[in-house]
């Protein structure tokens, strides 16, 4: 294949893309070779193209180059102006990501590349999450973006999806790190969310080449990117043995902050959070707990004065006896009625107002109070 056909890319991008196509070669090996041999990516690919590889170690690495993957990238780039290749030497490459032992040589980006170096906090958690957990993730995400912090997650169902959606409430960008190629969405049920993120000035990124489908071993690799490129990781609901805890542990190993939201001791999805807190993660119940630890000063609230007044009215409403009778766990309607000393039908009628205001949610089995309201 004639790599000069990659007219979208400058010579440096072309060279790094060719090196990255050797997917069986760890990035650290390329970076080590470049350092020890005093070569750059362009020189290596030129030597490879000319068949002039006298160094045996370099020749061994280059034999894994797959120019068919490079062609696949060219075709993907031609599909949309929102498709980008970000190399490890590019200004948009996340600076924190370079601290990995094997940082990706290439990132494939759909959407807003300028977000990649913005201050970020990861929000991760269980796929099989509770309604309350999803609401917590959504609330934290909305508050973080209101303070100028990009929310990064993994495009999974449950907590991840809720975090992305919460970040988009204020039309702020969010970053989804994918475990597939940029042209594949996993799970497929999040295809609409994937497109919404791009449309809302966010970015979907991956180190996997176009055409690569989901494999179990891809997701630990995705998790290391989430942990590395963010200032801290907030865990909302996780089992002890889960990919979420892998992300949290990777973050801790890299010296990043780890935050955990506590939950009911009888809930299996609280076990991971409680274990993290026992290991030294910071227990958080509000966004200011995060800003106490990370080096990002929150910006002023983005809303107008009339929005603040509406919040105050809601907060005043939240102090009354009926709302106090609803727990953050599922509370049966007969329990709520008994606590308020009123008939069940009356309690249900009055709770409708709170539901419309977003203070409670009706779910199978009763009601739950929503945090962050």
From TrEMBL:
Which residue spans traverse the membrane? none
Question: What InterPro entries does the record tag this protein with?
Answer: DprA, DprA_WH, DrpA_SLOG, WH-like_DNA-bd_sf
Q: Name one GO biological process term.
A: DNA-mediated transformation
All copies of domain DprA winged helix, residue ranges: 320-366
Q: Which Pfam families match?
A: DNA_processg_A (PF02481), WHD_DprA (PF17782)
The record's SUPFAM superfamilies line, in alphabetical order, gives: MCP/YpsA-like (SSF102405)
Task: Provide the Smf/DprA SLOG domain boundaries.
Answer: 85-294
Which PANTHER family does its entry note? PROTEIN SMF (PTHR43022)
**Family, per entry:** Belongs to the DprA/Smf family.
Question: What name goes with this protein?
Answer: DNA processing protein DprA
* The organism's taxonomic lineage, starting at the top: Bacteria, Pseudomonadati, Pseudomonadota, Gammaproteobacteria, Alteromonadales
């Amino acid at each position: 294949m004639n790599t000069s056909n990659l007219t979208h890319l400058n010579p440096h991008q072309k060279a790094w893309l060719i090196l990255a196509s050797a997917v069986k070669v760890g990035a650290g090996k390329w970076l080590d070779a470049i350092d020890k041999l005093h070569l750059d990516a362009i020189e290596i690919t030129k030597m490879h193209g000319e068949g002039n590889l006298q160094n045996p170690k370099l020749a061994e690495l280059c034999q894994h180059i797959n120019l068919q993957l490079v062609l696949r990238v060219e075709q993907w780039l031609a599909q949309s102006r929102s498709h980008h290749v970000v190399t490890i030497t590019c200004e948009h490459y996340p600076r924190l990501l370079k601290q990995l032992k094997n940082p990706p040589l290439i990132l494939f980006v759909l959407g807003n590349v300028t977000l990649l170096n913005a201050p970020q906090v990861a929000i991760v958690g269980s796929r099989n999450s509770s309604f309350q957990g999803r609401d917590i993730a959504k609330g934290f995400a909305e508050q973080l973006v209101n303070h100028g912090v990009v929310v990064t997650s993994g495009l999974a169902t449950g907590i991840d999806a809720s975090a992305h959606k919460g970040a988009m409430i204020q039309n702020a960008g969010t970053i989804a790190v994918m475990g597939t190629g940029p042209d594949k969405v996993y799970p497929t049920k999040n295809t609409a969310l994937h497109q919404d993120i791009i449309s809302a000035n966010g970015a979907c990124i991956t180190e996997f080449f176009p055409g690569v489908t989901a494999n179990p071993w891809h997701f630990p690799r995705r998790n290391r990117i989430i942990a590395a490129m963010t200032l801290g990781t907030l865990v909302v609901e996780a089992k002890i043995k889960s990919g979420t805890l892998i992300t949290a542990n990777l973050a801790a190993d890299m010296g990043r902050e780890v935050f955990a939201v506590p939950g009911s001791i009888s809930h299996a999805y609280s076990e991971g959070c409680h274990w993290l807190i026992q290991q030294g993660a910071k227990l958080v119940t509000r966004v200011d707990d995060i800003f106490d630890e990370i080096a990002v000063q929150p910006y002023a609230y983005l809303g107008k004065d009339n929005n603040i007044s509406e919040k105050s009215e809601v907060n005043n409403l939240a102090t009354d006896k009926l709302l106090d009778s609803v727990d953050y766990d599922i509370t049966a309607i007969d329990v709520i009625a008994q606590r308020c000393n009123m008939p069940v039908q009356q309690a249900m009628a009055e709770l409708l107002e709170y539901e419309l205001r977003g203070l409670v949610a009706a779910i199978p089995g009763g009601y739950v109070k929503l945090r962050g309201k």
